[in-house]
Amino acid sequence: MDATLPEPRTTTAAAAVTIEDLSDREGFDEQFLSRRVPIPSLDDVETVLLPYTHFSVLMRPDKRLAAITALGIDGAKLIDLDRSGIGWRLDPRLPEDQQTGERVYAKNDIDRGHLVRRASAVWGDTHAEAAQANEDTFHYTNAAPQAARFNQGLELWLGLETYLLENAAGNGRRLIVFTGPIFSDVDPVYRGVEIPLRFFKIAVFLESGSLAATGYVVDQTPQLKDLPDVPRPGARGEGNDGDAPPLGPFRTFQVPIRDIAALTGLDLAQLIAVDRMPIATALPSARVASAWRELTSPECLDLNFDLKG
Questions:
Q1: Calpha distance 268→282 (Å, rounded)
Q2: Confidence check: pLDDT of 28 > 60
């Protein structure tokens, strides 16, 4: 082990309460769209549900990362707050060895990527409510290792929520967003943690009074020629502890929600039934990934209804 890296610490329950009390967090609202939309479940895998302000994180202790995050966005109440002075922190409700903390991100080119987008969570009736949501997004439970260098693909991925709020979401500009990693056997293991090469996003909203959803995948897989011989899931030991595995430019795809279900094991039956990507209905038996549509801008979205913009 590299002695210069932050060492894991054991936090007692008493100390955790002193550090931060999250007992009043209500989490994601299943009735946010006036239709019940529960957090998708993951069968046969141990998970822990952690509520925050406006969002919840369903953690996978075995992966030390989230299985899925669930956020309700009220576009009419968004407040522009900056992130200065807010540091990343562990969640005291979960043992440290079940989270991915600073050690994975130290002294390398891997970034702490927000799963719940910070700007989307920062809303409320009061400044205090929005500020609490802002702080809550900086828990490591809401982070996943992502490529640190800026690229246009990441900007597109983050901007999808804003675009759908402005052009698709009815019901007072309200939108639900589910986000999470897609784990696979080719994910590199780095400092004891599997680095997901793909992530998903599902946006849920009301269109003409009915529930509608669209699915997306972002891929940060490097070109094969750039991929080093790094340990894969199931390898013994902590995996690569030296150079971080290279991560490629973000490529964003609009995908059938059924493909996300197949890749993650999440129960997405409710959302598959209201998928508004036309090919999802036209080709219900298409093999996974065969109907993916790469996006270069939000205007490239293929939906079976007319956008407002």
A1: 19
A2: yes
Q: Is 280 left (phi over 0), alpha (psi -120 to 50) or beta?
A: alpha
Q: Give the containing element (helix H, strand E) for 128.
A: helix 127-136
**What is the value of pTM for the model shown?**
0.85
Contact by Cβ (8 Å): 73, 37? no
Q: On the CB side of 68, how many CA atoms lie within 13 Å of its CA? A: 27
3-state SS assignment for residue 74: strand
**Tens digits of per-residue pLDDT, 225-282?**
343 444 555 544 455 555 666 666 778 899 999 999 999 999 999 999 999 998 877 7
Which tokens in the block code for residue 278? 């036309």
User: What phi, psi does 198 have (nearest 5°)?
Assistant: -135, 150
Which residue ranges form the domains of the chain, and what is each CATH number?
A: 32-300 (3.40.570.10)
295 phi/psi in degrees, rounded to 5: -105, 140
Residue 18 DSSP code: H
CA distance 303 to 214: 8
Say how far apart CA 246 and CA 174 lie, in whole Å. Answer: 37
Write out the two tokens for 102.
């600073």
Q: What's the rounded Cα separation, in Å, for the pair 188 and 254? A: 25
